[in-house]
Every structure is written in C-alpha cells, then in structure tokens.
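Purpose: get a first structural picture of the assembly so the mutagenesis plan has something to point at.
Setup: two entries, given in the order below. No constraints added.
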Amino acid sequence: MKAIILFGHGARDIRWREPFDCLASLWQEQHPGTPVQLAFLEMMRPSLEEAVASLSAKGATDLTVVPVFFGQGGHLRNDFPVILKECRGKFPSLRLSATPAVGEDLAVLQAIIDFGARAL
Amino acid sequence: MKAIILFGHGARDIRWREPFDCLASLWQEQHPGTPVQLAFLEMMRPSLEEAVASLSAKGATDLTVVPVFFGQGGHLRNDFPVILKECRGKFPSLRLSATPAVGEDLAVLQAIIDFGARAL
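Result (structure tokens, whole complex):
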C-alpha cells in the first residue's frame, strides 16, 4: 500500500502547523485510499522516523516523502538525506522515496503568484 | 503605482533562493506593470526596508508585502510586524500593507496536494 508523508520544518509556535494540518486533511479527503502523515525536521512531532513507523503499522509499504519547503537549502540538501537514510536502515522492508521540495513545482509557484495578484 | 514584495525567510545556502527568483520572474512576466522585489527576513538581501526603498525609487506608492511562508509562527507573528512598522515609520508617504502567509491560501495548499498526488 502506498502512503505519503508531508515533511515540514517545524517551529516553536504551535499555530505554525495549521497549514500542515490543513494539508493532511485535504489529502485524506481527496485520497482516502492513501494514508497521510505529517512529519517535522525539528521542534515538532512526529519525526520522520515516527511517521514512517506509524504508516508501516497501518500496512503501508511504499512511502513517498514530500518536503513542504520552498527552497532547497541546508535542511533539504544536508539534514534530510541523512534522516531519510537512517529511516531506510531502520525499515529495510519499506520502499521510501522523496520528491523535490514543493517550491520547485511551477504550479505551486503559480498559485503563490495568483494569491499575490488577488491581494493587490 | 502599485508594487509587490515577496518576503521570504532567507537561508545560508544561496541555492535556497531559487524558487524566490523564479517567483519574481513569473510575477514580472505576468504583471509587467507592477514592479516586484524579493525581500528576506534574515541571512539574505535585500531586507524589507531595502526592497521598499528600491520600489519607492521606481515610483511605487502602494506596496503589498506577501509573506512567502507556510506557517504563521514567531517570524510572522512577532518579527514581521516590527519590521513592517519600522518601514512605515521610515517611508511615511507610502502605503504599505501585508497579506497573510501564502500557506493560508487554499489554492496554494491544493497545488501542494496535487504535486504530491502526481509523485505517488
């Protein structure tokens, strides 16, 4: 079974995660057959490993991690591959892949442009 | 004249800003009559004040700042209003407004969901 992990940075302020909770709800409404988990790099739970464990316990075997970041800086280029490798080591029976950051997607950028245009 | 400022966090790795440069290019292509500037909270230039000065020098009088952040945590709830207030104090003849974070926009979130769905 496929599953998706929406992976964000995390923050001290709990309200920061509201769009992430909204993303998870939207996903589950629109893709009810594909379980979703949020995961955070730091300051929020679950960690990526905890999210992988949770989805594995639900029967997921093919997990795609989507980094919900704009830019690909040190966190995604340095920290994320290490965490992903550790998860692969701990869950060798799972297929664990990752997409580029969502900020690399032209449709996401276009939605931001359109949001700005509506605000002017 | 109206103008837009796309305001991001900033990062040490210069490659982090690639989606922001892409956003500025997209904006200018699609809205050639409305100047755009990027601005960053930290670690990258220009600052918000520098971006405001630059757009003011081009004749902009009505500036909208779009925070290109997912969540509204401490940076947007605490740091950003202080910087915005300082800019208003330094440029009293300009109209300087701000939108919520782009992560509050359902169309932006939907584009992220669709990106994830295509990756599975």
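Residues 2-119 of chain B form a domain with the Rossmann fold fold (CATH 3.40.50.1400).
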